[in-house]
């Protein structure tokens, strides 16, 4: 079976022609899927019967299955637990921001990076997601809301730069005007700092925002909380970030989780300011840590966070403390997990 989800408009047109149908049918199919969110061939009633029959016999549109849909009490965040074709499960989050709908997309089932503060990595990595599975997460939310998706953050479970080709391919589908039509400037990819991936991304014609999960202002501490810190030194990561900035002219964002008694002292605030000020026009997002049943780390007091922020700002770097969304349904940063096995969940509203 040929999977149509995640295939470009040009390739669907070519598929039509190879199989004896006019190229414009390709655009009609793409409109059905991405503009009208119709994903069953039988419902594509404006296509001739012969084409519908051919599609049924030869093609598929495999949307992940929604196992649980949870909506936060405030209504601003929704989380889907999705089941994929092989039975593995991932989570995807929709955030209703002031500027529009934003989807937090997963790139892998689980994660191999082993960051001590993050739930996505608790059971290791199962596998990479395919392009269709990445695109399917966003298409599901388009279907469920009937609304245009404003922005994409590649910040769900997994390390996107460890699944480079499928992730970049999916970003092109998100961008394609005939499909999701989301500008690259409305996409953010977050990485723990995979240097060759950052450099490759810098060479793409794809001006997305790059976010680095920094979380420590020196290599010694970073290695303690992020195993990837042993593979790549901060100096080399920053060289790659500068390369990205110079090639794409896009602002680099740093994510820094604040963990009490770990990385949130005033000394670390000064180190952080010193470290990041070498990147022009950058921005820091401070994230009060979200705990869970495995992670018994806590955020500092509001006073300490504000003081930390003020010190970093004194180095001339803009800082925001990230708005906390989704904690009530375990949909906040670092809380997304892969789930295996259990079929006892029901649809919660
Ligand atoms: N692997 C990529 C993509 C995941 S993004 C990366 O590391 O960037 C998920 C974001 O949530 C990252 O910035 C991550 O560091 C952050 N995060 C992880 N655990 C968290 C936690 N317990 N509380 C708050 N943020 C967390």
Please identify the oligomeric state.
single chain
Radius of gyration: 21 Å
Could you give a short account of the major beta sheet? 10 strands, mixed
Count of discrete structural domains: 2
Helicity range of the residues? 25-40%
Side by side, the strands of the main sheet go 3-4-5-6-9-10-11-12-13-14
Secondary structure topology:
Elements: E1 2-3, H1 9-18, H2 24-35, H3 49-58, E2 59-60, E3 65-71, E4 77-83, E5 89-97, E6 100-104, E7 108-110, E8 125-128, H4 131-145, E9 149-154, H5 164-175, E10 187-191, H6 195-202, E11 209-213, H7 219-225, H8 234-248, E12 252-258, H9 266-276, E13 283-288, H10 302-313, E14 319-321
Helix pairs in contact: 1-2, 4-5, 6-8, 9-10
Q: TL;DR of this structure?
A:
The protein is an alpha/beta fold. The chain has 2 domains: 2-60, DNA polymerase, domain 1 (Orthogonal Bundle); 65-340, Alpha-Beta Barrel (TIM Barrel), CATH 3.20.20.
Considering the chains and any ligands shown, give keywords for the structure.
349 residues; 2 domains; disordered C terminus; alpha/beta; two-stranded parallel sheet; DNA polymerase, domain 1; TIM Barrel
């Amino acid at each position: 079976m040929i999977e149509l989800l995640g295939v470009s408009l040009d390739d669907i047109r070519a598929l039509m022609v190879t199989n004896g149908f006019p190229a414009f049918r390709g655009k009609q199919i793409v409109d059905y899927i991405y503009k009208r969110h119709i994903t069953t061939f039988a419902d594509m009633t404006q296509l001739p019967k012969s084409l519908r029959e051919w599609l049924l016999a030869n093609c598929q549109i495999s949307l992940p299955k929604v196992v649980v849909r949870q909506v936060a009490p405030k209504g601003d965040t929704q989380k889907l637990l999705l089941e994929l074709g092989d039975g593995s499960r991932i989570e995807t989050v929709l955030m209703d921001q002031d500027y529009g709908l934003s989807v937090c997309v997963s790139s892998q089932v689980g994660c191999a990076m082993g960051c001590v503060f993050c739930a996505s990595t608790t059971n290791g990595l199962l596998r990479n997601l395919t392009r269709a599975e990445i695109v399917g997460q966003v298409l599901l939310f388009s279907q469920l809301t009937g609304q245009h998706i404003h922005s994409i953050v590649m910040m769900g479970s997994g390390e996107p730069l460890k699944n480079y080709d499928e992730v970049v391919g999916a970003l092109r589908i998100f961008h394609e005007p005939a499909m999701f039509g989301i500008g690259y400037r409305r996409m953010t990819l977050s990485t723990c700092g995979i240097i060759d991936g950052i450099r490759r991304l810098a060479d793409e014609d794809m001006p997305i925002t790059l976010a680095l999960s920094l979380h420590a202002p020196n290599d010694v501490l970073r290695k303690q909380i992020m195993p990837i810190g042993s593979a790549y030194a901060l100096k080399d990561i920053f060289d790659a970030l500068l390369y990205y900035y110079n090639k794409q002219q896009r602002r680099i964002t740093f994510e820094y989780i604040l963990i009490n008694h770990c990385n949130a002292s005033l000394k670390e605030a000064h180190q952080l300011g010193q470290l990041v000020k070498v990147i022009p026009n950058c921005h820091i997002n401070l994230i009060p840590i979200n705990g869970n049943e495995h992670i018994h780390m806590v955020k500092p007091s509001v006073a300490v966070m504000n003081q930390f922020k003020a010190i970093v700002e004194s180095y001339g770097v803009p800082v925001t403390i990230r708005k906390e969304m989704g904690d009530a349904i375990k949909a906040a940063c670092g809380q997304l997990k892969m789930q295996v096995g259990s079929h006892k969940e029901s649809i919660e509203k």
